[in-house]
């Protein structure tokens, strides 16, 4: 074997560089796609207009939430046949009578289709509103107001048609 043959076998070519670049950017793009999909499928966090004011109210909201949890309050949200139904029961399984129940529906990404609804009380003690939701994932922020105590807040995620 001559000197020229041994160096030509170990020569770094443009094809080697292309393979390295494709592998490098393939890993980068794959990780970015994975992270984006994971972010879309997980909790989106809470959005507030003024984070300073929200931070000042945090301890009060946390205290109210703990008191309501200690009383055994449980909320549940369902969407069937173009009707949104929210149920709030106490520790004994009895429905709670609220002054007002509102719900803010939003998408995890974007604002298309976002809407605010006021639910009305039905005969069984649950709160309902007729609404047609497009297929996909919806975030629901429910606020239940009472005459004699702090508001109850419930956050849920709806998967419509999935």
Give descriptors for this structure.
31% strand, 2 domains, seven-stranded antiparallel sheet, 162 residues, elongated, 7 strands
Any overview of this molecule?
The chain is α+β, with helices and mostly antiparallel strands. The chain has two domains: 3-41; 51-160, Sandwich (Immunoglobulin-like). Helix content is 34%, strand content 31%. Strands 1-2-5-4-3-6-7 form a seven-stranded antiparallel sheet. The protein is elongated. The model has no long low-confidence stretch (mean pLDDT 84).
CATH superfamily of the largest domain: Immunoglobulins
Distance linking N and C termini: 66 Å
Reported for the largest beta sheet, the result is:
7 strands, antiparallel
Can you tell me the number of structural domains? 2
Query: Which CATH class of the largest domain?
Result: Mainly Beta
Instruction: State the secondary-structure class.
Output: alpha+beta
Subunit organisation of the chains: single chain
**What is the CATH T-level topology of the largest domain?**
Immunoglobulin-like
Low-confidence stretches: none
**What is the second-level CATH architecture of the largest domain?**
Sandwich
- The share of residues in extended strands comes to 25-35%
């Amino acid at each position: 074997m001559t000197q020229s043959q041994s160096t030509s076998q170990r020569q770094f070519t443009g094809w080697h560089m292309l393979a390295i670049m494709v592998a490098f950017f393939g890993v980068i793009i794959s990780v970015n796609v994975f992270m984006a999909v994971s972010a879309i499928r997980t909790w989106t966090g809470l959005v507030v207009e003024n984070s300073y004011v929200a931070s000042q109210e945090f301890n009060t909201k946390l205290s109210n939430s703990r008191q309501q949890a200690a009383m055994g309050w449980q909320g549940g949200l369902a969407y069937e046949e173009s009707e949104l139904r929210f149920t709030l029961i106490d520790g004994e399984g009895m429905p709670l009578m609220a002054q007002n129940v509102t719900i803010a529906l939003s998408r995890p990404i974007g604002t298309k289709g976002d809407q605010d609804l006021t639910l009305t009380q039905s005969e069984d003690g649950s709160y309902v509103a007729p609404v047609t939701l497009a297929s996909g994932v919806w975030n629901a922020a429910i606020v239940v107001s009472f005459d004699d105590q702090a508001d109850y807040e419930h956050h849920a995620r709806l998967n419509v048609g999935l």
